[in-house]
Design a protein that fits this description.
This protein has 290 residues and is of the alpha/beta class. 56% of the residues lie in helices and 12% in strands. It is globular.
Length: 290
């Protein structure tokens, strides 16, 4: 678990306040990493300090250039001559709604956090990663392979991360920097509370003509999310995949986590599109064509 110069290996985890990010920070700390955990609130920083030894909270907003620069400076100061063994790009949000009526500002925000912010953070920490010939782990989703209706912006952002991960993996190959993406299915994290709030916001924000067209579909999505919340696997399962990607001698390029993720990946690869559309409509109990 030590770097070539005998010092502890270090990793940065973004979006570490709750859920997968927090679980990844705790898992890596338990494996001997010095973890710099990105948070935005003091209360979350304190909770991380209490969660495990070896975690140093760092204020980090992935959409703010000054915040990224300050986080980089803080981490570099702590590292000294050491490089960074790992970067876990986990920060993310979910924006939903019928694409016909989704707010453009919300769509931009989705990509600012889930895509552009990930690249901005990666660019900032790559010099330190290169020094240690470290690794990068991007948090994707099975939604990046198989889009879900009414969370199209979120699915699109995760699909973008699939492409960027592939490109980055090849670009950084000459320096021995591994790049992996983790693709979970339903996970038991606070994101489901946010998802239920999201359906409330969709209903609230839909204009009258949107409500007339999509109200029944939004109700169906709410029921689906309730079911997903009950069946989600613990975020610690995802954290173990992250740890494997950072520590294994032969890390995978992709990590599917959860039986539902594996089934959806197979379906997306082999089932014809229109048949898959019908299966999704049936599973989500969405209204059918009149």
């Amino acid at each position: 678990m030590n770097s070539t110069n005998g010092s502890r290996r270090a990793a940065v985890v973004t979006g570490a306040s709750t859920g997968i990010g927090k679980a990844a920070a705790v898992e890596l700390a338990g494996r001997g990493f010095e973890v710099f955990a990105g948070v935005r609130r003091d209360a979350d920083a304190q909770a991380l300090r209490e969660a495990a030894a070896g975690i140093t909270p760092v204020t980090l907003d992935v959409t703010d250039a000054a915040s990224i620069a300050a986080a980089r400076a803080s981490v570099e100061a702590a590292l000294g001559e050491r490089g960074l063994a790992g970067l876990v790009n986990n920060a993310g949000i979910g924006v939903g709604g019928p694409l016909e009526f989704v707010g453009i500002d919300g769509l931009r925000r989705q990509f600012e956090v889930n895509v552009i912010g990930q690249i901005a953070v990666t660019q900032a920490f790559l010099p330190a990663i290169r020094r240690a010939r470290g690794r990068i782990v991007n948090m994707g989703s099975i939604s990046g392979r198989m889009a879900t209706p009414f969370v199209g912006p979120y699915s699109a952002s995760k699909h973008a991360m699939e492409a960027l991960t592939d490109a980055l993996r090849i670009e950084l190959r000459p320096w021995g920097i591994g790049v992996s993406i983790v693709e979970p299915g339903a996970i038991d994290t606070p994101i489901w509370d946010k998802a239920r709030t999201m359906t409330d916001e969709i209903e609230r924000d839909l204009p009258p003509e949107g409500a007339a067209l999509y109200a029944n579909a939004v109700v169906a999505m709410r029921g689906f999310l309730e079911e997903q919340a009950k069946s989600g696997i613990p975020p610690e399962r995802v954290a173990k995949a992250v740890a494997h990607a950072l520590t294994s001698r032969r890390p995978k390029t992709r990590y599917l986590v959860g039986a539902d993720a594996r089934m959806q990946a197979v379906a997306a690869a082999v089932v014809p599109d229109r048949l898959l559309d019908r299966l999704v409509v049936s599973q989500l109990r969405l209204p059918r064509r009149p």
